[in-house]
Each structure stands twice: as C-alpha cells, then as structure tokens.
C-alpha cells in the first residue's frame, strides 16, 4: 500500500485534509500526518497544506529540521508526486509579496501577490464557491469539468512566470490561477477538503497520478 505524507509544519487544517484524503483513498493508501524528514523521504507522494500568510508559513517550514531538504529530495531527485493546497501551492513560487518579499521554495518560477479585482463588488478576501475556467488537460485537474464549483478562501494568488504552468483559472473581478502544474508538481488555490465531490475527485486523481 502506498504511503502519503501529509506534511505538518504548524499550518493548515490538517484534520480536515486528512479526512478528505482518507475518503479519496478509499483504503488504497495510508495517509500519514508528519513533520518527520525521514517519513517524508520514505513516502510515495507528498501533500503540503497551508493556511495563513506566505511569510509565516515559509518560516514555519524552515524551522523544522531537515524538512525542506527531505521535500526537495523527494520531489526533485526522486520525482515523487506532490500536491500543494492553498498556501501550500503558493510556497512553490519563487517569492511571496505578503508583508514584504519572502523567498519561496522556487519550484515553479513566479510570484505570489495580492488579489486586486477590477470590479469593486468583488471582495478580498475571496471567500466561498467559484467556478473553474480553462481547465488544462493535466491528469490531476482535467477531470474537474469546466465551470466546476470549488471553495476558496484567500487574499493572495500565485502567478507563474510561464502561463503554461497554470492548470486552471478562476474569475473574481479579474482572472487568476486556480491551479498550477509542472512535471510531478501540482497545486490548487482552492480547498479540496471543502469542495465536496469535486475536491474528493481531485484528491483521488492525485493518489492515482503517475507523472
């Protein structure tokens, strides 16, 4: 049975994410909540959640001994599938611009910046259900149909340098990336654990994904 490391670095609704992954796995994978570099190194695939500010989440990752090194080894040297959720997706960027400039993991070139809707009726934070558009033919996100409603709660978004790395978009007073993907990396700005059937479907596809 494959082992999935749900990375615990003090950020994110781990219990909800764990329950959603267990439901999506349907007995076909072991979900392990962990902050152990050794467990992460031995896992078959990785999930990085995240709630809060980019800078504080990046600092929390950096404070866990060996955590970033284990993630880099698993993702880059061993090519293990990786899913970032909300701020966990944003941390893949080169940098975040929340409360100053903070270097990210640098896995997908780009930056995380504040939403600036052109429509004044579009409030920030962006909270609630919204529909995906321009969903790419990428194994993890492709099963989500055009217009699929998913649940968001955030004020910042990840804008990759290369739009080819964007796997889906969403509109909230202006278009911004709802999902990214590159090689064995995937990330979603929305919360699969709060997105009902669409979210469970996405997690199930991630658990089956063999990039």
UniProtKB/TrEMBL annotation:
Alphabetically sorted, this entry's keywords are: Amino-acid biosynthesis, Cytoplasm, Glutamine amidotransferase, Histidine biosynthesis, Hydrolase, Lyase
Q: Which domain of life is it from?
A: Bacteria
Domain Glutamine amidotransferase positions? 6-206
Q: Which organism is it from?
A: Phenylobacterium deserti
List the InterPro entries. Class_I_gatase-like, GATASE, Imidazole-glycPsynth_HisH
How does the record describe its quaternary structure? Answer: Heterodimer of HisH and HisF.
Cited HAMAP family: HisH
Q: What does this protein do?
A: IGPS catalyzes the conversion of PRFAR and glutamine to IGP, AICAR and glutamate. The HisH subunit catalyzes the hydrolysis of glutamine to glutamate and ammonia as part of the synthesis of IGP and AICAR. The resulting ammonia molecule is channeled to the active site of HisF.
Q: In which pathway does it act?
A: Amino-acid biosynthesis; L-histidine biosynthesis; L-histidine from 5-phospho-alpha-D-ribose 1-diphosphate: step 5/9
- The active site is formed by 86 (nucleophile), 191, 193
The subcellular localization recorded is: Cytoplasm
Q: Which PANTHER family match?
A: IMIDAZOLE GLYCEROL PHOSPHATE SYNTHASE SUBUNIT HISH
- Protein name as catalogued: Imidazole glycerol phosphate synthase subunit HisH
- EC nos: 4.3.2.10, 3.5.1.2
């Amino acid at each position: 049975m494959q082992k999935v490391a749900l990375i615990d670095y003090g950020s994110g609704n781990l219990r909800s994410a764990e329950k959603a992954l267990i439901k999506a796995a349907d007995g076909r994978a072991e979900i392990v909540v962990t902050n152990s570099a050794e467990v992460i190194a031995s896992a078959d695939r990785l999930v990085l959640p995240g709630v809060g500010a980019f800078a504080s989440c990046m600092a929390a990752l950096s404070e866990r001994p060996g955590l970033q090194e284990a993630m880099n080894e698993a993702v880059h040297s061993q090519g293990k599938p990786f899913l970032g959720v909300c701020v966990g997706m944003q941390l893949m960027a080169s940098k975040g611009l929340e409360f100053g400039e903070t270097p990210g993991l640098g896995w997908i070139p780009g930056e995380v910046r504040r939403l600036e809707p052109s429509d004044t009726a579009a409030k920030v934070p962006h909270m609630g259900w919204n529909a995906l558009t321009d969903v790419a033919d990428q194994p993890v996100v492709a099963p989500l149909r055009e217009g699929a409603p998913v649940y968001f709660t955030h004020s910042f978004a990840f804008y990759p340098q290369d739009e080819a790395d964007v796997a889906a978009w969403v509109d909230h007073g202006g278009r911004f990336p709802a999902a990214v993907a590159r090689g064995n990396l995937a990330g979603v700005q929305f919360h699969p654990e709060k997105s009902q059937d669409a979210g469970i479907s996405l997690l199930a596809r991630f658990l089956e994904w063999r990039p």
